[in-house]
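Researcher: Quick one. two chains, 234 residues in total.
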Amino acid sequence: DIVMTQSPDSLAVSLGERATINCKSSQSVLNSFNSRNYLAWYQQKPGQPPKLLIYWASTREFGVSDRFRGSGSGTDFTLTISSLQAEDVAVYYCQQCHITPHTFGQGTKLEIK
Amino acid sequence: QAQLVQSGAEVKKPGSSVRVSCKTSGGSFTSFSITWVRQAPGQGLEWMGRIIPTFPTPDYAQKFQGRVTLSADEVTRTVYMELSSLRSEDTAVYFCARGGVGLGLGYMDVWGQGTKVTVSS
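Model:
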């Protein structure tokens, strides 16, 4: 199985500042034929199901704020949240969709400093 | 607008089985996959398996092979997840979620509300 490792496990950022979450896969999730990285990001708030933010590493899901940006390729990926808002407090997960099982990272808890 | 509605909470004894349903609406039932993900209390997300209604064989995580069965009823547009030989570690919220069909389309854009399964003697 592909192992997904996120860093940090938790993060406290001031309102209006930038938050950066990293995700590393144990093997590449890049499809060399179409140059797509099969990596998704989700946001989960307490008591709710996860919400898809980003897929193919950098494509924002419809309706997701442009403050959320995904980047990276191969094995190293980043979710950047610019100008942190109070409603961004949540746990964020990366997931590889390259090879089943489509494993998740352990999650990063984002809080307000 | 696509929606997934799951069955209600369950309390089960160790060694028994549980079946959770996920009723879909909106969109074509056979054009999407349904993935099951579970989340133990205070823990992260765990991918269990995926079913594409038009394909005969679901895809299961090795960890659950032999204990989980996914099935789909096209008439009622409902997908089922059955987990057998329950143990206390299976206590979790179980989610169904819609994904695509095809390479790289395993991300999930629509999620059910979750079903809490408690395994306790």
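DSSP finds no helices and eleven strands in chain B.
Researcher: Thanks, that's what I needed.
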